């Protein structure tokens, strides 16, 4: 296992609710790891129930063998919920020679779990009951397989209020592939009122090879489908379309006759894996452009929104990808993925500016940061949940779930009573209150170790930090305790 990358500063082991820190009330260190039944495991989707319980849906496989689907439900303290499945786990095993994936999942209004992906070359939807057992009222056995003869699979699923569901994916054809959208009833049947030439389905062709990856249903029940299309030069461009609620036509006011293809970087592939829509109707797309993470904003008609980072998009570092995005409180945007084979989590505002107050804590206790996050969700304002996989060795990965703090402690007091130093607020803008148990010398340093301030604190003192540049600082006490400070 690769050595965990640590700061050159030795930090205290105190558990503070800093923004971006792992939440230590969840599984003691904010992390859970699970091995699937096969060697290569991934957490494809993380879901949050209304009661605070967390669900991770994923799969595992061994090269050349069958693949299995796994669903875990965690209590609010990070322990497995023994009332779900078998001791907190449901495994849908494959028969020999059968390969299946869980590419996406969602919750219905009554907390049933919908899982979509593929079984061999056929798209598959599974519905689980709230207790984790396969729901036999859905397509008779809880598992719905579509009937196209060409290879196809689902990559995104949305549960509709009436119990029906929309699924988006890819359907191969003789010249490449198209987006495919299916509308399935609550009983697992095709919705014959949806689509036209093939009842229950609608295809969207962008020419050549096209893959649908992200789906969003609007308030008027029309919906966006997004993904990518490979052009004749074998380079991928972003593809998005808006489809009417009944699936019988494209919405002509969007893009050009309902569709839009574009790239933000003329070199390399431009692909979208995730989509969200802000309350003002602007569309957010997350993915990759020429091996750099991409977050892009379109207006409701499909034009680049130049209020977003002045160009309509924001690019990350080389070697990074965005796999999922979610809108948080105050319209902050969470994005997760990978950067240079390491986990990546960051926040943006609605104008495309990275939020410097969120600094993701690296994995503790020597756990390798090699891996990627594939899914993110939030409880709205307090916490962020990210699921994915951790690389153990070349041919072994684990299903990973991490819970991060989105807000700083309201008191600044450590959860451990033996700590001597506390600060409030954090992040701070103009002033900072430092509290100590007994008089002590504290030093404030930049990340590079340069000393900014040294003073003696007697019980409690408020200091002026208005002239500090925005960024990360470390506050050290003479007793050896260190706290990370975010200056806004």
Automatic annotation (TrEMBL):
Please identify the protein, giving its name as recorded.
Delta-60 repeat-containing protein
Organism of origin: Fluviicola taffensis (strain DSM 16823 / NCIMB 13979 / RW262)
User: What span is annotated as the signal peptide, if there is one?
Assistant: 1-17
Q: Which residues form a coiled coil?
A: none
Q: Which domain of life is it from?
A: Bacteria
Q: Which UniProt keywords apply?
A: Signal
Q: Where is the Secretion system C-terminal sorting domain?
A: 423-482
């Amino acid at each position: 296992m690769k050595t965990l990358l640590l700061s050159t500063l030795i930090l205290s082991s105190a558990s503070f609710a800093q923004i971006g820190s792992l939440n230590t009330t969840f599984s003691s260190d904010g992390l859970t790891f699970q091995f699937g039944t096969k060697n290569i495991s991934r957490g494809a989707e993380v879901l949050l129930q209304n009661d605070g319980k967390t669900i991770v849906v994923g799969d595992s496989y061994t090269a050349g063998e069958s693949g299995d689907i796994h669903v875990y439900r965690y209590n609010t303290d990070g322990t497995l919920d023994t009332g779900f499945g078998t001791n907190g786990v449901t495994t849908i095993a494959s028969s020999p020679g059968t390969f299946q994936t869980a590419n996406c999942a969602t919750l219905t209004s009554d907390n049933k779990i919908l899982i979509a992906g593929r079984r061999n070359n056929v798209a598959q939807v599974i519905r689980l009951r709230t207790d984790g057992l396969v729901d036999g009222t859905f397509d008779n056995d809880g598992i719905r397989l579509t009937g196209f003869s060409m290879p196809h699979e689902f990559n995104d699923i949305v549960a509709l209020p009436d119990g029906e569901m929309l699924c988006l994916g890819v359907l191969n054809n003789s010249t490449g592939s198209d987006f495919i959208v299916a509308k399935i009833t609550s009983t697992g049947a095709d919705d014959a009122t949806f689509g036209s030439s093939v009842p229950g389905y609608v295809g969207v062709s962008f020419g050549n090879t096209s893959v649908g990856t992200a789906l969003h249903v609007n308030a008027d029940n029309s919906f966006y489908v997004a993904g990518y299309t490979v052009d004749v030069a074998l380079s991928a461009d972003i593809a998005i379309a808006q489809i009417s609620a009944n699936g019988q036509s494209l919405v002509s006011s969007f893009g050009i006759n309902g569709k839009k293809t574009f790239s933000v970087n003329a070199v390399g592939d431009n692909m979208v894996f995730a989509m969200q829509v802000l309350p003002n109707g602007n569309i957010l797309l997350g993915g990759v452009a020429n091996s750099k993470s991409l977050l892009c904003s379109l207006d409701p008609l499909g034009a680049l929104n130049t209020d977003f980072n002045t160009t309509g998009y924001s690019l990350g570092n080389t070697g990074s990808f965005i796999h999922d995005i979610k809108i948080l409180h105050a319209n902050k945007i969470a994005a997760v993925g990978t950067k240079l084979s390491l986990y990546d989590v960051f926040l943006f505002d609605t104008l495309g500016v990275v939020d410097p107050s969120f600094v993701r804590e690296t994995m503790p206790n020597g756990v390798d940061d090699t891996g990627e996050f594939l899914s993110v969700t939030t409880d709205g304002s307090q916490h962020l949940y990210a699921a994915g996989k951790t690389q153990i060795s070349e041919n072994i990965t684990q299903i990973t779930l991490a819970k991060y703090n989105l807000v700083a402690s309201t008191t600044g007091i450590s959860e451990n009573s033996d700590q001597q130093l506390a600060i409030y607020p954090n992040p701070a803008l103009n002033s900072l209150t430092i509290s100590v148990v007994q008089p002590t010398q504290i030093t404030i340093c930049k990340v590079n170790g340069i000393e900014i301030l040294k003073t003696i604190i007697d019980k409690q003192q408020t200091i002026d930090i208005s002239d500090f540049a925005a960024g990360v600082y470390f506050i050290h006490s003479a007793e050896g305790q260190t706290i990370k400070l975010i200056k806004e």
